[in-house]
Design a protein that fits this description.
This is VWA domain-containing protein. By secondary structure, this protein is an alpha+beta fold. The chain has a six-stranded mixed β-sheet, with helices on both faces. It has a five-stranded antiparallel β-sheet with strand order 3-14-16-6-5. A hairpin with a 3-residue loop joins strand 8 and strand 9. Helix 5 runs antiparallel to helix 6 and helix 13 runs antiparallel to helix 14. The protein starts with a helix and ends with a helix. About 9% of the residues have low confidence.
Length: 600
């Protein structure tokens, strides 16, 4: 009986277990089905999202293609014009360049670009430029005297050329008008001897962008000796080998450029090589410049890496220059860098003070800029200005040849220092004037006669150009209302024959006392409206720079008119630099048209 009960309980337990197992299986099946549904739903959503994403991408690509077609149509027109232009310089790849004279290269115009941002703010974000305000218009009854320091730097032009050739419009502050104009040589009369180190000439034309105004050109030409007659030189190459220089267009280009400079040196010249990164050091003690193998091996040994202790490098370079100092010779430190000083003496004022103190020892300081992205142009220009030297930007090997071979004498040999210009306009003849450029070179009126005030230098053979836009009293082109309470007394007749007094002060390289030069511009000359090729080409360059800065004073004057004026006044263009200008104007016009299309 007990056995039967046990069997019965076992049977009931077995049946219950089977029932439970069956119910569990059913529930599991339902769960699996639910999970499968969830997975299928998720996959469907993901597929839908992908389809939408592809649709958006297709739409964006279609929009980009439409924009590209618009740009391409414009570029075909630009290309037709550009086929007529023969250029040299930055349109040639670095690998195609050598040390020979530049060869003329015909190009078919800018390469097609689609959906390229006009100003890549990210690219320029770490580049540093000095803030430059627009030139002021002055009334002669309120401020008849204009005073400024001379400037022969050209770095702004080649730096902006780099940007335009990279299919980017430049930041406004990267454009310094005077450096655009002074990039080109002009056919000014040469002085007879270095006793009067430069000649001064004037020319007038009607302002191309304002028929009611005149454009006055003051042209200076420095005395130039034959290259073989240059005094012996003591050059210290100060090269930035920090990590930021690790690029073919930085340290790679620096090596090639300095080899070119060394190649043109003589046995009596001395060359040293100092480098700086996290620490600074001497790579080459003062060496006879004709020992080219030793110099080139020292340059070839340079590699980039580390942070940038520029201040320590400058101090060491001056020590090398003092060690090999040549009395009566050319003693100069030549800095090659992107200006990215980030350790050591990084304060701009401290670096400038150091260079300013050292120039009193007779050792000049020049700065050569290289590279893109973190370029500190502001510091480079200021160091060169305070070091009685030149500032240049090298964007390709042909620019290195222009600065360091073709213009070697002007780059290395100073023939006049602390050169200042002062123009006093006659209010009886001239109502208003505006100096084009030189905004960061302006001086106070009393600085002109103060020999302790630093100013610019002129190198051997350099040409320097200053342009004034002036409005005569009988013109309808005045921008300012006349003063109600101004002095309206009749001007004496003899004062009506002069329009302006032009004065220059300068010091010879070894002197501390300035010499005064003075000339008078006749009113009849200022009333003339036809200028020659010198002033007309300078006007086209100045107008190009003004357009890049926004064209505040140009009215409806356009890129086409700048290009036409440059073409008409190009004259002899042995090296192709003037032809290249017209190519750059075409590129700027194309980019500006893209900006207009984007704005619409």
């Amino acid at each position: 009986m007990k056995t039967n009960k046990k069997v019965a309980r076992f049977k009931y337990g077995l049946v219950a277990s089977l029932v439970i197992i069956s119910l569990s299986a059913c529930q599991s099946s339902k769960d699996h089905k639910s999970d499968a549904v969830k997975v299928a739903t998720s996959e469907q959503r993901e597929l839908t999202d992908r389809v939408k994403s592809h649709a958006k991408k297709d739409q964006a690509q279609n929009n980009a293609k439409q924009r590209a077609l618009q740009v391409e149509r414009k570029q075909r027109q630009v290309a037709k014009e550009a086929e007529k232009v023969v250029v040299v310089g930055s349109r040639v790849a670095l690998s195609e360049l050598d040390y020979a004279a530049p060869q003329k290269v015909k190009v078919s115009g800018p390469h097609p670009v689609a959906a390229t941002p006009l100003v890549n703010r990210e690219q320029y974000r770490n580049e540093k430029y000095q803030k430059i305000e627009a030139s002021d218009v002055h009334s002669t009854t309120e401020q008849p005297v204009s005073t400024f320091s001379i400037d022969v730097d050209t770095g702004s032009y080649s730096n902006v050329r780099r940007m335009l050739n990279n299919v980017q419009l430049p930041p406004t502050d990267a454009v310094r008008l005077e450096e655009f104009v002074n990039y080109f040589n002009y056919d000014y009369p040469s002085p007879d001897s270095k006793d009067m180190p430069f000649s001064v000439s004037t020319e007038v034309m009607t302002a191309p962008w304002n028929k009611e105004a005149k454009l006055l050109q003051i042209g200076i030409k420095g005395y130039e000796e034959a290259s073989s007659e240059l005094p012996p030189s003591n050059l210290v190459f100060l090269v930035d080998v920090s990590g930021s220089m690790r690029s073919p267009n930085k340290l790679g280009l620096v090596k090639k450029a300095l080899k070119m400079l060394a190649k043109g040196s003589r046995e009596q010249d001395r060359i040293s090589l100092v480098v700086y990164a996290g620490a600074s050091g001497v790579v080459l003690e003062p060496t006879a410049a004709n020992d080219r193998i030793k110099i080139e091996q020292a340059l070839d040994s340079l590699t980039a890496g580390g942070s940038t202790n520029g201040g320590a490098g400058i101090e060491l370079a001056y020590k090398m220059a003092e060690k090999a100092f040549i009395k009566g010779g050319i003693n100069r430190v030549i800095l090659a860098t992107d200006g990215d000083f980030n350790v050591g003496t990084v304060n701009r004022e401290q670096l400038i003070d150091m260079v300013e103190r050292k120039r009193k020892t007779g050792i000049g300081f020049s700065a050569l800029g290289f590279g893109t992205g973190n370029y500190n142009e502001h510091l480079m220009e200021q160091l060169a200005n305070k070091g009685n030297g030149n500032y240049g930007y090298i964007d390709n090997l042909l620019e290195a040849k222009k600065l360091l071979v073709d213009q070697r004498a002007g780059t290395l040999m100073t023939i006049a220092k602390d050169v200042k210009i002062q123009v006093e306009f006659n209010p009886a003849v001239v109502a208003e004037y505006r100096l084009l450029g030189y905004q960061n070179r302006m001086l106070e009126r009393e600085d002109f006669n103060n020999d302790k005030v630093d100013a610019g230098e002129i190198g051997a053979g350099h040409t320097v150009t200053a342009l004034y836009e002036v409005v005569l009293q009988d013109s309808e082109g005045k921008r300012m209302e006349p003063l109600r309470y101004s002095d309206n007394e009749k001007t004496e007749d003899h004062k009506l024959t002069e329009a302006a007094m032009i004065s220059l002060r300068y010091k010879l390289p070894d002197e501390d006392k300035s010499t005064l030069y003075r000339d008078y511009l006749q009113a009849e000359t200022l009333r003339q409206s036809k200028g020659g090729d010198n002033i007309r080409f300078a006007a086209s360059v100045a107008g190009f720079a003004e357009l890049l800065r926004g064209g505040q004073f140009l009215g409806d004057w356009s890129w086409d008119e700048a290009q036409q004026l440059a073409q008409a006044s190009k004259g002899q263009d042995v090296n192709g630099y003037r032809g290249e200008l017209m190519q750059l104007i075409s590129m700027a016009k194309l980019l500006d048209d893209k900006a207009a299309v984007g704005a619409r």
